[in-house]
């Protein structure tokens, strides 16, 4: 059963093209927009259920519709330019335009430089950096015609201190590449009023990647829920595009600026003291 979007909601009728989004943070952002009555097109690879990961692009689309939005699941690969072109054309054909691009798709491998397989290095560069650039670029002609166009990439501030850049050089290069591409687009298309920002959390987020790749149950216990990321992304995407662009934003700072003072409700394990939250990579 679908819920009714809020009358006059900021993202009502807006169209979002997102890479990934079958689960986790991307899906949480999509569902928050759907509550306003947004249209969400998802370009994702997960067509059939994964043995270790919940959700497909089709189940995500069902959840978006149930939340009050419209959904267009597109099975494709952000590494493939033809998939990107198809996604843009299908999104415009279905919804009439594109207002927002969310670069959510990302690959993580925290191996050291000696242990990181070249194939995995290439995959992180192809998905994180190339995919962000190509998807954003392909949508620019549509964003030029949007009333409040935004590009939002889920990537960190450019903290190149030895502590973080040296901790996992291959992954850091890929995530910083996402940020650099986004900041470059912000500068290049500022005159067109197209906002381009990045958003990153101060703590780890309770996702399958944290559970299966980074830290298991220990880290999940001191992580926050994807909803904190979604609520911050919502604030960014509702902001006037000519007033907020070219920024590397932090989730908690965005929410504090919006008046949020209590983050206890975002704890992945209810009751976890806020000061116990594990500091995430690339910050401090």
Protein described:
With 284 residues, the protein is an alpha/beta fold. The protein is 42% helix and 12% strand. It has ten helices and seven strands. It has a seven-stranded parallel sheet, with helices on both faces. Helix 3 (81-95) runs parallel beside helix 4 (118-143) and helix 4 (118-143) runs parallel beside helix 6. The radius of gyration is 18 Å and the shape is globular.
- Shape summary: globular
In round numbers, the mean pLDDT is: 91
Number of alpha- plus pi-helical segments: 10
Oligomer: single chain
Uncertain segments of ≥5 residues (pLDDT<50)? none
**Largest sheet properties:** 7 strands, parallel
Q: Give the ordered list of helices and strands.
A: EHEHEHEHEHHEHHHEH
Question: What topology does this entry show?
Answer:
Blueprint lengths: L14 E5 L4 H11 L4 E6 L12 H11 L2 E6 L5 H15 L4 E4 L14 H26 L6 E4 L8 H4 L3 H20 L6 E6 L7 H7 L1 H5 L5 H13 L9 E3 H7 L27
Parallel strand pairs: 1-2, 1-4, 2-3, 4-5, 5-6, 6-7
């Amino acid at each position: 059963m679908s819920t009714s979007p809020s009358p006059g909601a900021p993202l009502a009728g807006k169209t979002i093209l997102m890479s990934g989004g079958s689960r986790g943070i991307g899906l949480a952002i999509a569902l928050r927009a759907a509550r306003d009555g947004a249209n969400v097109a998802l370009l994702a690879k997960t067509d059939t259920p994964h043995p270790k990961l919940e959700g497909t692009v089709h189940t995500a689309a069902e959840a978006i519709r149930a939340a009050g939005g419209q959904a267009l699941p597109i099975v494709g690969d952000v590494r493939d330019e033809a998939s990107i072109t198809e996604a843009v054309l299908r999104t415009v054909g279905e919804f009439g335009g594109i207002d927002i691009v969310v670069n959510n798709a990302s690959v993580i491998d925290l191996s050291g430089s000696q242990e990181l397989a070249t194939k995995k290095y290439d995959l992180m560069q192809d998905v994180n950096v190339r995919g962000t650039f190509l998807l954003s670029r392909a949508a620019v002609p549509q964003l030029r015609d949007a009333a409040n166009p935004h590009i939002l990439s889920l990537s960190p501030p450019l903290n190149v201190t030895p502590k973080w850049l040296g901790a996992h050089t291959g992954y850091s290069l890929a995530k910083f590449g996402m940020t650099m591409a986004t900041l470059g687009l912000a500068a290049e298309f500022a005159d067109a009023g197209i906002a381009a920002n990045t958003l990153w959390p101060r703590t780890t987020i309770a996702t399958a990647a944290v559970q299966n790749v980074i830290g298991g149950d220990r880290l999940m216990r001191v992580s926050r829920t994807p909803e904190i990321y979604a609520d911050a992304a919502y604030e960014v995407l509702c902001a006037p595009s000519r007033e907020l662009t070219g920024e590397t934003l932090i989730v908690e700072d965005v929410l504090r600026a919006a008046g949020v003072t209590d983050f206890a409700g975002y704890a992945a394990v209810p009751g976890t003291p806020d000061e116990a939250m594990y500091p995430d990579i690339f910050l401090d």
